[in-house]
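Quick one, T. Sequence first:
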Amino acid sequence: MNQPLSDALAFFGATGDLAYKKIFPALHAMARRGNLNFPVIGVAKSGWDLEKLRVRARDSVRTHGGGVDEKAFAVLVRHLSYVDGDYKDSTTYSKLRNALCNARNPLHYLAIPPALFPVVVEGLAKSQSARDARLIVEKPFGRDLISAQKLNSVIHTVFAEDDVYRIDHYLGKEPVQNLLLFRFANTFLEPIWNRNYIDNIQITMAESFGVQGRGLFYEEAGAIRDVLQNHLLQVVGFLAMEPPLTTYHESIRDEQVKVFRAIRPLNAEDLVRGQFTGYRSETGVSPSSMVETFAAVRLQIDSWRWDGVPFFIRAGKCLPATTTEVLVTLKRPPLRKIDANNYFRFRLSPEVIIAVGSQIKKPGEQWLSQSTELKMLHDPELGELDAYERLLSDAMVGDGTLFAREDAVEAAWEVVQPILGNVAPVHPYEPGTWGPEEAGRLTRGIGGWHAPQK
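Structure tokens:
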């Protein structure tokens, strides 16, 4: 499906943290590849001028973009302009309209708190800046199902769903996309990727650090809202989806939605929450906080392919390692004398590993087996695009494949809606451990949680 190319980018929140850490490095990378050939307009209310924004951009690229390529940075500076003004002031949007010049299909990026989305969307509409335009919005897409529906309703007063690009940067990561390719590009895998051969699937997203000064944010989010409802359910979608139709550009997103709709809504019995010791002493955190910094769930997918196969997900801060890993455990062979341990292991970060656990004969006279692992390590230096560079480039050309669609967002909220809030107790755990011991009850009967190695 041919889409018009966006011919300008306006990003709101140009002086903010997201622009500093992600957007400027992505634009610099696009310039380095020769893909930055359109006006870039930063919009913010900071009392800044263009020169100060350029200084900020250089520092951003130096700190978070792997260093400044002077030739590429000169391209970025040449295309960069700045509008300073209050988002509630119509004059701001008049200045933006002038800065867009002759752009016919601009892309507007809202790198701002969701509470400001309605104000900016209305301002874009009144100034005619939303005509034939696209819109990028950052997660969180609401705090629950009702707020997500309200947010989508506000956006749709101005922008059609086909023109809305909801960034979940996890979908832009090369290793996450590799899950999809590995599943459907290898003939040997499809015949066994189902309930007949797979015993269970575990997904662990571990961080060895705490909230890093973002206590106020985390008090509003917690582990379930921060990573489970979005990042980790997206991984479940890639692992569990049916083969997409290659002739239809929306097929991948269609199949993801089918998975989310087939997941049974979670309940308190499916959930264990934890909080690391010392969290309540963090700046911005309530001394009596009941917010989880660790969440573990057991979910079921009611589909022909996955009926009876449990999916176990856990995510937490102050755990022994910083890594994200998927373990797909196969069922045992019928010969009970063979102590089989067959699996597929996907490490998504920090390094990228695809491994197959298999059995070979143990040296000696007896017919005993021993475990071995066949491992493939991906070299991250082979021209890999950063998630934000990829997603920004895709939005510019109108490719929504790696963006969250309205129905997927709402279906994911339906899965976690019953476990939001204090529906289950918060168990303490010590930093450097794999969370509260109570999480072990979820995996009782399958040998416990898989612990990724550092």
